[in-house]
Amino acid sequence: MSDLQCAARIVVVTPRGLGDVTWLASELHRERVQAVYAADDVPDTGPVETLAEDLGVPCHSGRGDLEDGSDGLEDIVDRHRGETVVVVRGGAATEPVLMLVDADGTSLHSLDENV
Question: Is the dihedral of CA 44, 68, 12, 17 positive or negative?
């Protein structure tokens, strides 16, 4: 049986992926982002705040552990069912990844995919 609620759309970005905030904001504009969250392991929140400002949404820094399966990420997923948010957390990736999370599980996609 599938989930009756819409999936939360989590755009996962690492600090390395914030190298060109203007480009990233323009790529995310079509996603209708509702908020930007930053984990505790993000060393410089300046680019995170700039991204939120460019998107015209609230910025929530220092949100604890936002790794897959963490309580912090689960809280964001529960709070944003059917919405898109950006989560900035540690890692080496340079490209953003779209994570769809619902009761059926998690799936990962590139931002270029039409999902």
Answer: positive
